[in-house]
Write a structure and sequence with these properties.
globular; alpha/beta; five-stranded parallel sheet; 5 helices; 130 residues; Rossmann fold
């Protein structure tokens, strides 16, 4: 599928999953600043993220690691199995050397620390959909 808003191109559809409402709002604002992307849904925990992926079929899923009901790594494994075409970015407050390999092993295509979101998230998503 071609992405973008040119004729015949669909916007990149992104699902955000984070249990902190303020952080989700900030992510939505950051992601929607990219004219060719749209946030198609938000989830407050990993189980809801899995359910929304089934329903909405997003192109990209942005998952926090630390969430109730099903953490981001567990949710990523389920999503990878059930929606292999959805690309995933794992977000965490933990340092990369501790969690990056676990995120990639769970099926994520990128890992971004929350402290670097404003600088690295857009680049990570662009790399996944290229």
């Amino acid at each position: 599928m071609e992405y973008g808003f040119s004729e015949g191109m669909a916007p990149v559809r992104i699902l955000i999953a984070d249990d902190h409402e303020i952080f989700r709002r900030g992510l939505r604002s950051l992601l929607e600043s990219h004219s060719e992307w749209e946030v198609c849904g938000e989830a407050v925990d990993g189980q809801q993220a899995v359910e929304q992926v089934r329903e909405l079929k997003p192109d990209v899923v942005v998952l926090d690691i630390t969430m109730p009901r099903l953490n981001g790594l567990e949710a990523a494994k389920v999503i990878r199995h059930e929606a292999p075409d959805s690309k995933m970015v794992i977000l965490s407050q933990h340092e990369p050397r501790l969690m990056k390999q676990a995120a990639l092993s769970a099926g994520a295509g990128a890992y971004v620390t929350k402290s670097e979101v404003s600088r690295e998230l857009l680049t990570a998503i662009e790399g996944l959909i290229a």
